[in-house]
Design goal:
With about 325 residues, the chain is of the alpha/beta class. Helices cover about 35% and strands about 25% of the residues. The chain is built from eleven helices and 13 strands. The strands form four sheets. The protein has a five-stranded mixed beta sheet, with helices on both faces. Strands 8-13-12-11 form a four-stranded mixed beta sheet, with helices on both faces. A two-stranded antiparallel ribbon has the order 2-3. The radius of gyration is 18 Å and the shape is globular. Bound molecules: acetyl coenzyme *A. The site of acetyl coenzyme *A has 24 residues, from helix 2, helix 6, helix 8 and strand 12.
Amino acid sequence: MSYARILATGSYLPEKALTNHDLEKIVDTTDEWITDRTGIKKRHIAAEGQTTCDLAEAAARDAIETANIKATDIDLIIVATTTPDRIFPSTACLLQERLDIHGCAAFDVQAVCTGFVYALSVAEKFIKTGEAKTALVVGAETLSRIINWEDRTTCVLFGDGAGAVILQESDEPGILSTHLHADGKYKELLTVPAGVSEHPELFAQGKAKITMLGNEVFKMAVNTLGRIVDETLAKNNMQKSDIDWLVPHQANIRIIQATAKKLKMGMDNVVVTVHEHGNTSAASIPLALDVAVKSNCIKRGEILLLEAFGGGFTWGSALLKY
Ligand code: ACO
């Protein structure tokens, strides 16, 4: 039976960095508050006119070059994003055209911060069933476009960026299992409560922005991520000590620390980029993965646990041998 294995990773961050001190000039906040409550020190912000597809393209080209494949070897493109360039075509189709690939399936996945785990899981199924051999899976966001820059409870948290992986058919173990969940009853706790169909007037006025009951989300995230760690280990008959690296969604250092504690894992084995990137939603896991791989922290053959929690609520995990 063939596996889907990560062949290479890539990432891209916009040039402009916004520090906590910069934010002190925009809203009533302090570097100390943001650092203590979230671990975030800075985040990157896309330039005017720079789109999610621009970020996705740069990350994808990085991954393609690192994998040493031709773009035309790719026969599936999935982009996880909450901030697509257009209502349609999908960002995946726009990316396909940029990469001069024609004909293969290309579509977006919308699961907010869990988007990359969802996309990876779908791509794995395509590969395992023989529908695809080489998939490009991207998480890319320009969240700065849906931030209310007057709301200090949310604007300090998010950033822009993109990460990508090339997933390829292999006889060697790669992705061992993925676990996806959602519960729409929590839709109001973390949302952009307007779009092209619901409250189109707010959307047209540029008032479709993130709202969040942070404290409620925090508690749910910690409990839910604890449960999904157990579910993932049980499915694979593994112990906590079998995990070499935790690659978590980068929302808040305190949520990450709680999951590491649940795994009885020292922070030395947890990939942390939240201080540098903020919460980049669907881009956060592939960005963190690329940083850890390119800095030679994560090595071939190691066992990685990827996990995420986000709007919906959605949550999910992927256990893989790198
Ligand atoms: N600067 C200074 N003070 C602030 C700020 C700020 N930026 N933001 C809020 N405060 C104040 C609040 O007004 C409140 O003041 P009060 O006590 O006078 O009312 C106080 O700080 C405490 O606010 P809380 O919301 O209780 O702070 P908390 O410790 O919960 O931290 C945070 C807030 C960081 C948002 C946290 O709740 C969190 O990380 N939540 C989860 C976020 C998350 O994981 N989201 C999921 C993924 S995101 C996605 O899917 C798109």
